[in-house]
Specification:
Elements lengths: L3 H10 L4 H8 L3 H8 L7 H11 L3 H5 L18 E3 L4 E8 L5 E8 L15 E8 L2 E4 L4 E4 L4 E5 L5 E3 L6 E8 L5
Antiparallel strand pairs: 1-2, 2-3, 3-9, 4-7, 4-9, 5-6, 5-8
GO molecular function: DNA binding; DNA-binding transcription factor activity
Pfam families: Cupin_2, HTH_3
Keywords: DNA-binding
Length: 181
């Protein structure tokens, strides 16, 4: 689940107004306010836009800060972010100590897509399919992956994920936050 309190805390720590976050994210100030107050659940695209606008890794809004100090995170301690409208879930595996590396398990029901809109963010992604099928959609092509397949790409390339198969898709993603040339 999204840590709405942490979202607001980060915005205030960075001395950003709702309007400033809105300008950087392309979202409306009222939508951001509703998300912070728990009146609206963000879509995947909205979630990533907020992370990019605040310049924070996704796991910062999903992971209990105490797990950042631990070497072991038990399954029952792990928090997830369920996208209700999409029947999909982001599960942070472990937060990096320096917040440059995120490791996330993505679960998607058959026929689901992580948003219709292509998303972009800083860094690079490395994905590995554990179960089912996964399509990674780019503006000019779609790469279909199966268990054991992996993919790597620059995250500023517009992309989205979809499960074209008949089984639940489970994939593991390493997201490296750094500016790419």
């Amino acid at each position: 689940m999204l840590d709405r309190v942490k979202l607001r805390e980060i915005r205030l720590q960075k001395k950003m107004t709702l309007r400033q976050v809105a300008e950087r994210s392309g979202l409306s100030p009222s939508l951001i306010s509703k998300i912070e107050r728990g009146e609206v659940d963000p879509t995947v695209t909205t979630f990533w836009k907020l992370c990019n606008a605040l310049e924070v890794p996704a796991t910062l809004l999903l992971v209990d800060p105490m797990t950042r100090q631990q070497h072991i995170v038990r399954a029952q301690e792990r928090r997830s972010f369920v996208f209700k409208e999409k029947r999909s879930e982001y599960i942070p595996i472990h937060a990096s100590f320096d917040e440059r590396v995120e490791i996330i398990e993505v679960r998607m029901e058959p026929g689901e897509s992580i948003d219709r809109e292509l998303i972009t963010h800083e860094g690079e992604e490395i994905g590995y399919v554990l179960q089912g099928e996964l399509s990674v959609v780019f503006p000019d092509r779609e790469e279909r992956l199966y268990p054991g397949d992996s993919i790597r790409f620059i995250s500023s390339t517009p992309h989205r994920y979809a499960n074209p198969g008949t089984d639940v898709s489970i994939s593991l993603w390493v997201m490296i936050k750094r500016k790419m040339p």
